[in-house]
């Protein structure tokens, strides 16, 4: 999609030159010579600019007043000020009002181009978040947490109640696949913040430095590679909700920085002197017991108490196997629709297998099993061969996972290491991808006598990635 840039500039030569320049680069461009014309253009809902490149002093007002007046309606648009009269108080006010950047004329074309590109990227990201919000808002009512067991009804009631109250933070606990992400969406899209962004970050997915700049944002030049300004996820979640998945994996020093943001409601991007006000609700999820993590020093107690205004535990599927009565038909209907299938019958034997399995991967695992079964179905009957095997079923309904099938993972042979690593993983849902990865790195380190360089070479990755995994999985 071609992005639109609005240029607000009272100097006709410069205005037209900028318009021509960005039109040649492939953007839609609009030009307003004063605030009045700019207001007319901005009131057109059909042709909303993604970027406004504005002079500060205009014949009938200032660009800053225009920004203040319109910013409520233009949350997916970035402002860059380009002024010959730039003074510190103006730039401070511009940034406080949420402008993306403030450049003083004359400014080098490459610098302007770089700022324009990053501002457009930022506007696109915000637009995506807002579009997702509108679509998702229709889907996530408290009832989308399916299940009629006592414990599920309690959970749905709790989600309904929490959606009505203005809390600042909440912790969701529960095993993988129990619906912590789903609960977050329900909480956000049924709250008074529903029209604002829901921004998600998995704290286990990024190495520390990247996590810090993703969360807090950075200024151009804040570190090697920081070419231009970047709004962090905390800033992007302003007025909305920030979902921090796997919060237990966040390094301790970032925990301290996050706590400061929560307490002061102020944020400083990396490399910036400027503090920005932020208003966010945090929903933090973890599969760990955070109280234990606090006791053993892996999680800051002050952050734990700040976040645990409410704590909601999502039950495992094996605690509520009767929910299969509702979950299975709902999921089969969903996959019928997606795959154009017509599965309408589940045989008593298939039900028995579904109900006697322990579901270590919870609803996510159930979804995967049913998706596979529906896609591969050849009749109205749910096929049985892809349902959990009898040997992974225990009478009590609790896991005692005998590997159903095993997959052989071989490390490549090298001159340094002639012996094959004999790694076998159960693929019955009892072992997650992360555990497998941790096991591979642990065994490789043992085989290579702790030589990280050698491990990285054999696994065709970088030393940093191996070091990151050593930290992440506590493999020292
Ligand atoms: N009660 C439920 N009703 C309907 N769908 C559910 C329910 N619980 C979970 N799901 C679905 O199962 C899948 C996994 O859930 P989700 O990603 O929310 O789990 P999670 O607890 O956040 O997992 P992880 O800790 O691994 O991130 C999603 O597609 C979610 O919509």
From TrEMBL:
Listed A to Z, the keywords are: ATP-binding, DNA-binding, Nucleotide-binding, Phosphoprotein, Transcription, Transcription regulation
Residues forming the Response regulatory domain are: 4-120
Cited CDD domains: AAA (cd00009), REC (cd00156)
The family database entries (InterPro entries) matched by this protein are listed as: AAA+_ATPase (IPR003593), AAA_lid_NorR (IPR058031), CheY-like_superfamily (IPR011006), Homeodomain-like_sf (IPR009057), HTH_Fis (IPR002197), P-loop_NTPase (IPR027417), Sig_transdc_resp-reg_receiver (IPR001789), Sigma_54_int (IPR002078)
What Gene3D superfamilies does the record point to? Answer: 1.10.8.60, 3.40.50.2300, Homeodomain-like (1.10.10.60), P-loop containing nucleotide triphosphate hydrolases (3.40.50.300)
- GO terms, biological process: phosphorelay signal transduction system; regulation of DNA-templated transcription
Q: What is this protein called?
A: Two component, sigma54 specific, transcriptional regulator, Fis family
What the entry lists under PANTHER family is as follows: TRANSCRIPTIONAL REGULATORY PROTEIN
State the superkingdom: Bacteria
Example GO molecular function: ATP binding
Which organism's genome codes for this protein?
Methylomonas methanica (strain DSM 25384 / MC09)
Q: Where is the Sigma-54 factor interaction domain?
A: 145-375
């Amino acid at each position: 999609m071609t992005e639109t840039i609005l240029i607000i500039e009272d100097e006709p030569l410069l205005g037209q030159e900028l318009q021509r320049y960005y039109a040649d680069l492939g953007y839609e461009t609009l030009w307003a010579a004063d605030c009045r014309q700019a207001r007319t253009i901005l009131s057109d809902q059909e042709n909303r600019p993604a970027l406004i490149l504005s002079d500060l002093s205009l014949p009938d007002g200032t660009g800053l007043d225009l920004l203040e007046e319109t910013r409520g309606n233009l949350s997916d648009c970035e402002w860059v000020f380009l002024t010959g009269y730039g003074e510190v108080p103006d730039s401070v006010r511009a940034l406080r009002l949420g402008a993306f950047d403030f450049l003083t004329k004359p400014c080098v074309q490459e610098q302007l181009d770089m700022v324009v590109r990053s501002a457009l990227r930022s506007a696109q990201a915000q637009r995506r978040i807002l579009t997702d919000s509108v679509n998702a808002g229709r889907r996530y009512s408290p009832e989308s947490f399916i299940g009629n067991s006592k414990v599920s009804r309690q959970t749905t009631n709790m989600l309904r109640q929490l959606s009505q109250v203005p809390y600042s933070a909440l912790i969701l606990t529960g095993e993988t696949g129990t619906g912590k992400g789903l609960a977050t969406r329900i909480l956000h899209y049924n709250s008074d913040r529903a029209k604002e962004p829901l921004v998600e970050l998995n704290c286990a997915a990024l190495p520390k430095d990247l996590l810090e700049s993703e969360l807090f944002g950075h200024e151009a030049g804040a570190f090697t590679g920081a070419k231009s300004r970047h709004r962090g996820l905390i800033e992007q979640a302003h007025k909305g909700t920030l979902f921090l998945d796997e919060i237990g994996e966040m390094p301790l020093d970032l925990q301290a920085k996050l706590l400061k943001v929560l307490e002061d409601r102020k944020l400083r991007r990396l490399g910036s002197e400027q503090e920005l006000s932020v208003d966010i609700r945090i929903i933090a999820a973890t599969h760990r017991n955070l109280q234990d993590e606090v006791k053993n020093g892996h999680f800051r107690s002050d952050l734990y108490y700040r976040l645990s205004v409410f704590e909601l535990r999502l039950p495992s599927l094996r605690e509520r196997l009767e929910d299969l009565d509702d979950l299975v038909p709902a999921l089969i209907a969903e996959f019928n629709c997606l795959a154009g299938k017509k599965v309408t019958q589940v045989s008593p034997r298939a039900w028995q297998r579904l109900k006697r399995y322990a579901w270590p991967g919870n609803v996510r695992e159930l979804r995967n099993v049913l998706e596979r079964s529906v896609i591969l179905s050849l009749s109205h009957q749910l096929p049985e061969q892809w349902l959990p095997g009898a040997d992974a079923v225990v009478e009590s309904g609790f896991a005692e996972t005998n590997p159903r099938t095993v997959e052989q993972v071989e490390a490549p042979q090298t001159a340094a290491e002639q012996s094959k690593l004999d790694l076998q993983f159960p693929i019955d849902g009892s072992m997650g991808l992360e555990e497998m990865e941790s096991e591979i790195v642990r065994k490789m380190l043992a085989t290579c006598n702790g030589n990280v360089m050698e491990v990285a070479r054999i696994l065709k990755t970088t030393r940093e990635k191996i070091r990151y995994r050593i930290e992440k999985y506590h493999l020292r």
